[in-house]
Amino acid sequence: MSERLVIVQASVPWFEQVNGMLAEAGWRALGMSAFEALPRAVQQHVHAGVLMLDKDNEAELDEVDVLMAGRADIEWLALVSADCLSSDKLCRFLKSRCFDFHPLPVDRERLWASLGHAEGMARLVAKEVADGEISGRHGMIGRSAAMLNLYRN
Is pLDDT of 31 > 70? Predict the structure, then answer.
């Protein structure tokens, strides 16, 4: 698949801004509903996501956490407002769930480089999963998203 797809979880004004920024680097941004509408075979080729975080959506972190845990082969980048970094809960979330984060305003070139690196690393995980290399570690078995994430860490 030659088209580079990325999930973007953000409110409409932010989605449009991020979409424009990513399109300049050859990425096609998909909102969650567009991603979920894709055939499963196409979804398997999406390995990167961008998440907009600010203090206003701190209450939604559990919901976002479930979304992220559903696919161990997607690496997530967070775009964060300055006030996020003063929240212990948001900082723990960034540390445990995100490949990288970028404070606002976003440096486009740094974001593009991080996104490419995140996608590349996620493709390695996807290959391990497909090859069966990742399952059965430490005497454990299972291929659910939670188990794959556990093996990965």
Answer: yes
- At position 87, the amino acid (one-letter code) is S
| Pairing verdict, β 48-53 and 4-9 | parallel
Burial class (CB in 10 A: 0-12, 13-18, 19+), 59: exposed
The CA-atom distances, in angstroms, between 22 and each of 9, 27, 81, 120 are 13, 5, 19, 16
Contacts of 80 (CB under 8 A, 6+ apart): 53, 54, 90, 94, 101, 102, 103, 104
Q: Residue 71: which residues within 8 A CB-CB, separation 6 or more?
A: 145
Q: Is the peptide bond before 39 cis (omega within 30 degrees of 0)?
A: no
- Residues contacting 16, CB < 8 A, separation 6+: none
pLDDT digits (tens, 9 = 90+) for 34-67: 998 999 889 989 999 999 998 877 777 887 788 7
Q: How far is CA 86 from the centre of its chain?
A: 22
The whole-angstrom separation of Cα 58 and Cα 79 is 13
pLDDT in tens, 89-106: 899 999 989 999 999 999
